[in-house]
Amino acid sequence: xxxxxxLTPGPTQIPESVSSIxxxxxxxxxxxxFQAIFDDVRGNLKYLFQTKQDVLVLTCTGTGGMDAAVSNLxxxxxxxxxxxxxxxxxxWTKIALAYGLAPIELKVENGEAIEPSQLEALAQVNPDARAxxxxxxxxxxxxxxxxxxxxxxxxxxGMLSVCDAITACGVFDLPxxxxxxDVLITGSQKALMIPPGxxxxxxxxxxxxxxxxxxxxHFYFDLPKERKAQAxxxxxxxxxxxLLQGLQESLRLLKEEGLHNVFRRHELLAKAxxxxxxxxxxxxxxxxxxxxxxxxxxxxxxxxxGKAVPKLMRDKYGVTIxxxxxxxxxxxxxxxxxxxxxxxxxxxxxxxxxxVLNELGHKVELGKGVGAVLKxxxxx
Length: 380
Ligand SMILES: *Cc1c(COP(=O)(O)O)cnc(C)c1O
Hints:
Helix content: 40-55%
Structural class: alpha/beta
CATH superfamily of the largest domain: Type I PLP-dependent aspartate aminotransferase-like (Major domain)
Oligomer: single chain
CATH class of the largest domain: Alpha Beta
Number of strands: 15
CATH topology of the largest domain: Aspartate Aminotransferase, domain 2
CATH architecture of the largest domain: 3-Layer(aba) Sandwich
Bound molecules: pyridoxal-5'-phosphate
Strand content: 15-25%
């Protein structure tokens, strides 16, 4: 017998009160019953995004939300600045190129956040750029980018700030209206604790105004059309009805805990994880600005096959974490601690890591990381 534990940065674990909803009979979406659910969801999404704007729900994963943002905002040939700190930053560039934009990258080393002055300098030499596209939390490296500063710089340069908050929204504080985030995007299988299949996106007034001059091709993701439909409690196309029912429950759970308590829980879990990493003599990839969503850990040189670490954790012990992608493949592991995660998920994850490091020939004192985790929790 082996229990399984999911500690990945999406999909994340699903609370039972959410998953039980998916066994219900399907309802039709052009009905008062659906409309009541959707109205409740739309209200609570404003709470989650900390905005007065409409938060639109799209049937797609997070990348679809990024795609929709680009294809609804810009004009062919538009110059955009992209903060590229890893796999997801790179995705902004790829989407921009797919639509014939001219992305200019601010490339940062894996594990580093940008310095605001770097972006300021890039904006200065590219005053005609129309937007800054970035990640609030770069999931591939576990880095938290300075969102508030990025938005401030974009605004003063007359550019739009377009924020992929897919592992940030509902993880740490990201007040859309207060910080002047023009476009905020998230996805369902991350902090929202439901299966993949929904993206959520909100636009500022300035961003809505930009959609009017957009000349890029799009059909399925037509944000002005969605905005009109969703204001009436409907969607342009058939919505993912069951996922929306799950979302209603997960938003209720987030609200019940209180958004700021959710952020504090993630901070504590991230801190416990980092303390365990230090106690085990391992090194963080993101030293200066670690995200509270996911902790990326450099694997020691004594482990010859880095990919064996997550593999053994999963296959032998049932604990699923992820490794690195592209040039970080086999070099790091990433432990996620957001969503439906509590103290004993982290305790379990670290204890499994200790066993596996030993088995793969990197000797650590058993219980050392776990001790650091428990000490962090005891101190609160
Ligand atoms: C998960 C994730 C995405 C979206 O990925 P999908 O596979 O389309 O859901 C985008 N950006 C970040 C930062 C993510 O963590």
